[in-house]
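Bumping with the actual sequence this time:
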Amino acid sequence: MEPFVRAKRPKNLPIVLTKTEVQSILRHMKGVTRLIAILLYGAGLRLLECLTLRVKDLDFERMEIRVRRGKGGKDRVTMLPASSKQDLIEHLKNTKRIHEQDLREGSGRSQLPEAIARKYPNADSQWGW
């Protein structure tokens, strides 16, 4: 066992913000970046998970978010922070208007996972995707 060197413990511990510090930061944020920060902090989402959420992944009745193909390619369900509900609904209303306009102009399609595009040829233009 002599040729092996024992790993050293890190000297610096990670910095974790207090609840008050997080609230202070969120008060200074606006718009979509604030909504993303609330979801990252309140729902425990990773950045890519948050940025690739689909409308169909949000369940406002059960206050849940379904994370598809998260870390390790696994699906999971996490809570939807109550503080983000109203902001998220407003964001979805605005986004739906943009989506409908994009569809009228001939775009507004999304990339579908795996074989769903073959199974449902028009699903890429539906709001939930």
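The tokens above came from a reply further down the thread. The chain has one domain: 19-125.
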